[in-house]
Amino acid sequence: MTDQALVVFDGVAKRFGAFVAVEKMNLDIRKGEFLAIMGSSGCGKTTTLRMLAGLEAPSEGEIRLAGKRINDLPTWQRDTPMVWQSLALFPFLTVRENVEFSLRMRGIEKSERRRRVDKWLERMQIAEFADRNVAHLSGGQRQRVALARSLVTEPEILLLDEPLSALDAHLKVRMQTVLSNLQRELGITFVYVTHSQSEAFSMADRVVIMSRGRIEQIGDPQEIYRAPRTRFVAEFLGSSNIFGGSVTAVGNGAVRVATPAGEFDIAANPVKALAKGDKATFVVSDDRVQLSNEKPAEGINAVRASVVGEEFVGATAVIHLEGPDGIELKAQKSHDELEHLNLAHKADVWLTWRPEAGHILPGE
Ligand SMILES: Nc1ncnc2c1ncn2[C@@H]1O[C@H](COP(=O)(O)OP(=O)(O)OP(=O)(O)O)[C@@H](O)[C@H]1O
User: Fold this and answer.
1) DSSP letters along 220-237, please?
2) Segments forming the whole domain that contains residue 105
3) Which of 60, 115, 127, 350 stands the most exposed, by the fewest C-beta atoms within 10 Å?
4) Predicted structure pTM score
5) Mean pLDDT across the stretch 89-99?
6) Would you say the CB of residue 45 lies under 6 angstroms from ligand 1?
7) Residues 270 and 193 in one domain
8) What is the Cα–Cα distance from 89 to 167, expressed in whole angstroms?
9) Which residues are in the ABC transporter domain (predicted)?
């Protein structure tokens, strides 16, 4: 991957009548990166992708691919193939004919077509089904055909719109590995739209989080997870305890914030300078809090809460709690860590964390 932009969205907006599906967007997509676009339903992810594919025209702004304006370039003239959830394979054609299709459209001669199709059938491990009708394949096999069909033209960029959402959980994980490996080996740019945090965070180099047609945050998965910019991002990711209040003291790399759940010391955010009296919202990720049935010593960040429920998440469990003023809290811990605690419904527990575990949202 390089820092060079392959695609630039320069002030791109999309309106459908009076409705703004995508607000003025500035986004650079780097050459060779795996970029995931996430956000709740209707936030404009697919519209963004469709503008890049040439299936929607921007209402405003400019889209550039490798430095060239492509706003008015018809779909078939841009090399931006797209893989959909529905895959949109040609149902009456064989695997080979499906994969060969775009090469035929481009007038590539027969022996070259054969060479390239064979290469991609082999590459995607579907050569043994070459002459089978695509209707007679499993979900995973059809995925591979769709990928081969898109990649056979050896494009610089591949657009994927929820390509795995129709697959069962097991196959999803397998196809994630196939996609990540493929992207890294080919070094081409993937732009991947998904609802799924686990897909985005496990595969992408950078993640874009959208809300109501706007980009809320762009960053690598670790950065977004550890340092969300806004309350929307923190809530969307769903793994944070969120506190809002006002600053009562500043100093020594920390700020003191008074909230309805108590007063806490939180590491200052270098991106956002705060002064006494300012409003501040901070988050503490559910895996960075400690739980105890004992009242902690004075002077550390602590909230008394009562247990609402326990949710098993494989190797860990998330304990849901209710804090002062009805605030919803959670803690994610390994089963070992929870073993000696009383976590019965309504049991009293203390949630504690170090100032460094707190993150002040710079965008609030
Ligand atoms: N052709 C259209 N005409 C009118 N409104 C549209 C059209 N296409 C999309 N929209 C609206 O624009 C908004 C963004 O749609 P888009 O499909 O980009 O969302 P999304 O984030 O991909 O959602 P989902 O995850 O549900 O697919 C939605 O409110 C949608 O109803």
Assistant:
1) -HHHHHHS-SSHHHHHHH
2) 5-226
3) 115
4) 0.90
5) 89
6) yes
7) no
8) 16
9) 7-237
